[in-house]
Amino acid sequence: MSDTEVDTEASVAGKPTKYCLSSSALTITIGNQTVPLRNVIAASYHPNARLLKVAYVTRRKTKGCLSLVQLDGQVEDAQADSANNMAKTTLEWAYKGVKPNRRLKVLVNPHGGVGKAVAIFNKSIEPVLRAAGCILDIVHTKKHGDAYDIAKSLPLENYDAVVSVSGDGLVHEILNGFANHAYPRKALRVPVAPVPTGSGNGLSLNLLGPDDGFDVIAASLNVIKGSSMSVDVFSIMQGGKQTISYMSQALGLMADLDLGTEDLRWMGDSRFVYGLLRGLIKFKACDVQFSFKAVEKDKKKMFDTLRSRPPKVDAELAHQLPEPTEEEENWALPEPKTSLDETEGWTTFPEPLLFLYAGKGPYVGRDFMAFPVSLPDDGLIDIMAQSTKSITRTDVIASFGGAANGDLYWKDSTRYIKAEAYRVKPLSKKGFLSIDGEAYPFEDFQVEVLPKLATLISSCGSYIAPFHEPASKK
Ligand SMILES: Nc1ncnc2c1ncn2[C@@H]1O[C@H](COP(=O)(O)OP(=O)(O)OP(=O)(O)O)[C@@H](O)[C@H]1O
Question: Where is this region: Disordered (predicted)?
Answer without folding.
Answer: 321-342
